[in-house]
Amino acid sequence: MQHGEFTIERTYAASPRKLFRAWADPQAKRAWSVCQDGMATIEHRMDFRPGGEEVIVNRGPGDAIHRFHGHYLDIVEDHRIVYGFSMDVDEQRLTASLATVQFLPGDAGTRMVFTEQLAFFDGLQTLQERREGTAVLFDNIALYLHEATAQ
């Protein structure tokens, strides 16, 4: 088993409330939470509250099943989200993580600070792969917010 940690900071031209809603609303989350081309969501359940659970199951290229199983530990509306989660592909556990998301208001919108601490199992994923996949998700949030504003 290996351990790792990374932080990604992004600034979005949206209020903390709007950015927080992109994480909190199940329909919004479903719109941006696929990190690979060719993936299709086959299940998404979300109980967004401290003690609540979220499950996302995607079918990826080659019919591999990708599963996110998370538990919300702390939520302060428009300010922060803390959750623990595991990531599996088919029947193999890739990682277990603790993630924090902070929403910091600024002149240009909201600075989002995401930190993930991970345990990697059996060498099935690297820190760089996880960081890159997470960065894609955050690009998707920017696209989602832009499209939501344009409607």
UniProtKB/TrEMBL annotation:
Domain of life: Bacteria
Pfam name, any one: AHSA1
Domain Activator of Hsp90 ATPase homologue 1/2-like C-terminal: 14-144
Protein family according to the UniProt entry: Belongs to the AHA1 family.
Protein name: Activator of Hsp90 ATPase homologue 1/2-like C-terminal domain-containing protein
